[in-house]
Amino acid sequence: HLGGTVSAHAAGRAEIGYYPLVPTEEGQAFAGKIGMPWPGMVYQWHREGFDTPEGAVCLATGADFPVQAIRVGETAFGIQFHPEVTHAMICRWTVRAAARLEMPGAQPRQEHFEGWYQYDAELGRWLGAFLDHWLGAAHPTSPDQCRETD
Known about the structure:
The protein is an alpha+beta fold and 150 residues long. The chain is built from four helices and eight strands, in the order βββαβββββααα.
């Protein structure tokens, strides 16, 4: 929507499973704002990626799909990975879309569950801090601010 390009990986690779996430310098500064470092490993389920559109700032990168998180202004974000993933979602996705597990770069089904047990707590803490920051920026946070907008 912002003019960026979405495309398949040039070598046909996919990120399906848990993969490393590396914050950029701008991403490190954002982590300081929310009071929580970026998770080191994140759940992915995609075979397309996107570039950083004009006016956006790249916050995190990955190996096969370099743009993993962007920010436009102070309150609009784009995130390639799935911090909201649950155990039930992994069960469903790895059964209903099992053919995607055969794509180059995809991890075997068992590794998805091992990753969930290993990384979900950290990812959940990050998501909570991110949402608190994002929702706090978009909505009044104190009764005094509510009165000012009445």
